[in-house]
Amino acid sequence: MSPKLVILDRDGVINRDSDDYVKSLDEFLPYPQAIDAIARLSRAGWTVAVATNQSGIARGYYDEATLAAMHGRLETLVRARGGEIRRIVHCPHGPDDDCDCRKPLPGLLERLRQELGMASLQGAWMVGDSLRDLQAGEAAGCHSALVRTGKGERTLAKGKGLEQARVFTNLAAFADWLLAQPEK
Ligand SMILES: O=P(O)(O)OC[C@@H](O)[C@H]1O[C@@H](OP(=O)(O)O)[C@@H](O)[C@@H](O)[C@@H]1O
Ligand SMILES: [Mg+2]
Ligand SMILES: [Zn+2]
Q: So which residues are the signal peptide here (predicted)?
């Protein structure tokens, strides 16, 4: 039985991304459609988690406290819509830190699997705007979905590694589609 689990990338899926990184609470601008989509998924019995690369920490652009404030804001917004984000995990490392958790490696997803007490992520969903999100999800056995928000259009234009991914306009469209699928 596949876990009723949706793992979300953060920047470009849940909130506006920036090529200059999302460096402060003021720059953390969730998409209203995404907050509503997360609430709808969790109210429908889906476990929603977040797996995000945050190399801005390693780069010194912001600190863990600032990141925690963003994630507190996110959880408050979702709870206000009657939903829940079960867990948010992040990779604070930079590209040269040789960690095992920076997407496209599946380390963040493995951490979620362990912390959520799930035997496998086979059949769960990974939703992202970048190829590395899809690669991490597929490496962990997830179905993959690309959204056109954030870097999604750029990811689509590059055209590689998208063979398995379903493409959606945004997280709301993904939630609409998933919630319309017959229960397995
Ligand atoms: O999309 P998620 O994983 O939630 O977060 C992405 C961010 O950590 C940042 O990741 C950076 O990539 P590098 O880490 O510099 O390769 C850049 O793409 C930034 O534009 C982006 O804001
Ligand atoms: Mg992203
Ligand atoms: Zn890492």
A: none
Specify the 3-state DSSP secondary structure of 169: coil
> Would residue 147 be called left, alpha or beta, if left means φ above 0 and alpha means ψ between -120 and 50 degrees?
beta
What are the chain's domains? 5-179 (3.40.50.1000)
Does 11 qualify as catalytic in the annotation? yes
- Residues around the ion ligand 3 (C-beta < 5 A): 91, 93, 99, 101-102
Classified as helix, coil or strand, 126 is: strand
Segment 36-56, tens digit of pLDDT: 999 999 999 999 999 999 999
Are 14 and 34 spatial neighbours (Cβ–Cβ below 8 Å)? Answer: yes
Ligand nearest to the CA of 151: 2
Other Cβ atoms less than 10 A from the Cβ of 80: the count is 10
Nearest to 133 by CA among 120, 146, 121, 124: 146
The answer to whether 133 is a known catalytic residue is no
ipTM: 0.98
